[in-house]
Structures are given as C-alpha cells and as structure tokens.
Design a protein that fits this description.
The complex is a heterodimer of chains A (112) and B (200).
Chain A (H helix, E strand, L loop, with lengths): L4 H9 L6 H7 L9 H6 L1 H5 L5 H13 L4 H17 L7 H18 L1
Chain B lengths: L6 H10 L4 H12 L2 H17 L10 H19 L3 H6 L14 H9 L11 H9 L3 H12 L4 H8 L3 H25 L13
The chains are: A mainly alpha (112), B mainly alpha (200).
C-alpha cells in the first residue's frame, strides 16, 4: 500500500528526533541529488532567490520530482503571494507631504 | 565644502529622497501599526535624513538608508514608551528551540487543501493585522523581505545583524505567521481541521 504524503511526513515528525533518517530512507532516487530534508531546509532561500545557481537547480529539480515535497513548496508560494498582495499601495497623505516639505524648508533656513 | 542646507544638496535631497516618501510611510505604518505614529515617524525620518544628507553617497541605496533611519527612530521611540500591546506581542513563544524542517502547519493543510486555496479567502487586513502581532525583529524581517523585496544582505545591513540572523528571523517570523493564518482560516471555516494521527 502506498503511504499517503501526510502519513509519511507524520511518521517523519514522530520518528527519530530530527527525522532525517526516516525521511532519507523514503527518498526516491529520482528526487536526488538532494534529499527531502535538504530541499525543505532550503525552501525559503530558494523562494527568496538567495541560493547559488547549483543549489537553486538542485532544489528546483527536487521539488519538480518529489510528490511529497511539492505541496509544501506550493503552500509556501501561496503564503508568499498573500503577503505580497497585502502590501497595499497606500500613499503618504497630502498633509504629511506638506508637513515634511515645511520641516525641510525650516531646517534649510536654519542651516543657511 | 557643502552643508545639508546648501541649495544643491537641498535639490538633490528632494530629487533622491522624497520620491521614497510613500514607501517610508507604508514601512512606518507596518512597523508602528498606527497612522498618527507613522506620520510622526516619517517626519522624523526625513528630518534626520536631511541633516545627515552630506553623509549619504549619491546614487546608492537611498530607500534602504531611509528605512534604516525610520526603524532606528521607531526603536528609540518604543524604548521611551513601550505600548502595552507591543509588550504583549513580544510574548510570542520564542523558547521552542529549533523549528522542525517540515512545517507542521503545512502537514495539516496539505491534506485538506494542498493547493492552499484557503489563502484566497483571507483578506489583506487580516494578514496585516497578523504581521502587526509579530515581535518587532520578526516583523521587520518579514516586512523588508516579503513586502518590500529586499535581499538578505540588505536587511542585514539595515538591521545591523548577520545574514544568518536575518534568515533565522525570517524563518521563525514566517512560521509564526503561517500558524496564525492557518488557525484563523480554520476558525473561519475556510479550511477543515485535519484529524490527528498518521494515515496509511
């Protein structure tokens, strides 16, 4: 019987402390050169574009091949999407803009 | 020798720094969570920046320089009169040791909604409100990275900590935020709570 992704991950979480061994035992050869643990450890840096070219390619390959890890990547992406979307394009109010300009003019006057 | 009040410097400041006022205002708003405090922060930020303009190298990262000043002003103001809700928000659990590599929130979410469609039901105000509840160091890292798109090294420079600390704050801040948003989505019925225990 094929164990579900959830079952595998829960087994991993309840496995041998950090769970590396359990997860690595389950690793699929086609997901390599990096293990599920290594891919998940680097998921933030991968999405932030902070990995070097080789490492980025390794993580990309892993997530494209690993059906257990891919949903985690997808959820991270959706999470980033809503954070980004929440950044409203509020503008500084006109009265604030004017206050800053007045402050700067007064300061320049004091300096001259 | 030029001084900040020189006409050329004033013109340079207006051309290079003032276009970032909207971004500084949003950053101040996210940091402080209050419109009036954000407006004070913006005024103080631009005043300090103008006074220190001769120390700024033209053409370098003006926006991150302004953000750095803004955060420093915010932290000093907060030290002087820390708000009750700020103190409460600092009580987010930081003592749980290292987080698991596998995100327990995603483990729950992936069974009921592997595409993360529940996120679409969460309104922006709720997201911003949850960001506001993060401890300041986590909040700043999340705002600068996820909302403003700064690189790790830029955030490290702006907050005067090593890149490793930035990564750690981002990791932890995001995990706290993910848990809060997931629990909110469950409470609102946007996603079903999954049952405990492994499945075979």
């Amino acid at each position: 019987m094929i164990m579900s992704f959830l079952g595998r991950v829960k087994r991993l979480l309840g496995g041998n402390g950090d769970g590396h061994q359990d997860h690595d035992e389950d690793d699929c050869p086609e997901c390599r050169p990096i293990s599920c643990m290594e891919a998940l450890e680097r998921v933030h840096e991968y999405l932030d574009g902070e990995l070097g070219e080789v490492s980025h390619s390794e993580v990309e390959h892993h997530f494209s091949m690993c059906q257990r890890c891919y949903p985690h990547l997808r959820l991270e992406e959706r999470f980033r999407d809503i954070l980004h979307q929440s950044q409203t394009q509020e503008k500084a109010p006109d009265h604030l803009r004017q206050q800053v300009l007045d402050l700067l003019a007064a300061e320049a006057g004091k300096m001259n | 020798m030029t001084e900040p009040g020189d006409r050329k410097n004033t013109v340079d400041f207006h051309e290079e720094a003032l276009p970032h006022m909207d971004a500084v205002f949003r950053f101040a708003l996210r940091l402080s969570g209050a419109q009036d405090q954000a407006e004070d922060l913006v005024q103080e930020t631009f005043l300090r920046a103008f006074r220190a303009w001769d120390q700024y190298t033209p053409g370098t990262r003006c926006k991150s320089w302004l953000f750095t000043i803004c955060r420093n002003v915010f932290l000093r103001q907060r030290e002087r009169g820390q708000r009750h809700d700020e103190i409460v928000s600092e009580n987010v659990d930081r003592s749980t040791g290292p987080f698991e590599v596998v995100n327990p929130v995603w483990v729950k979410a992936v069974e009921a909604d592997p595409e993360g469609d529940f996120f679409a039901s969460i309104v922006d105000e709720e997201v911003l409100s949850r960001i506001q509840e993060l401890p300041e160091d986590y909040r700043t890292a999340v705002i600068l990275s996820d909302l403003e798109g700064f690189r790790y090294q830029e955030i490290a420079d702006m907050t005067d900590v090593p890149v490793g600390t930035v990564k750690s704050r981002l990791f932890r801040g995001r995990r706290v935020l993910q848990k809060a948003l997931y629990e909110y989505a469950v409470s609102m019925g946007y996603i079903s709570e999954t049952r405990e225990g492994p499945e075979e």
